Backbone:
């Protein structure tokens, strides 16, 4: 088996989640700051995470529009996936993430009276965990 890293790729941050060894559950790990405009993609930190977790692959959220069309963020997620494939030679898969951030925010609001500022600090990590969990529930472990 092996672990899978789940990513919620934005223009300013990448939320990271990791599966358990059996590929059943996802847990949020951290949020990596990036700067798409300046071609800074947080890959040095990703190197450390790949070294730490030894994943068998990656799952990236695909932020399609509600009508199932693709916009610029879908292209950006696919481009980030290409970078991961080139760098680590591991499989990359994509999981439809429509409503994932909305779901994450709702969960945080229901969980506790968390301030908007605190929610912003964890939302991408939780969204990454939901993307990965949805993928695991749908597909099961990713094997190279």
Residues:
């Amino acid at each position: 088996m092996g672990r899978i890293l789940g990513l919620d790729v934005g223009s300013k941050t990448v939320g990271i989640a990791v599966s358990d060894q059996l590929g059943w559950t996802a847990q949020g790990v951290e949020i990596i700051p990036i700067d798409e405009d300046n071609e800074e993609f947080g890959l040095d930190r990703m190197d450390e995470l790949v070294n730490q977790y030894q994943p068998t692959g990656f799952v990236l959220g695909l932020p399609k529009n509600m009508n199932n069309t693709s916009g610029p963020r879908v292209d950006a997620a696919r481009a980030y996936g290409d970078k991961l494939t080139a760098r680590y030679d591991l499989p990359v898969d994509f999981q439809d993430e429509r409503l994932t951030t909305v779901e994450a925010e709702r969960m945080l609001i229901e969980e506790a009276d968390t301030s908007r500022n605190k929610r912003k600090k964890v939302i991408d990590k939780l969204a990454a965990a939901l993307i990965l969990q949805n993928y695991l529930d749908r597909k099961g472990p990713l094997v190279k």
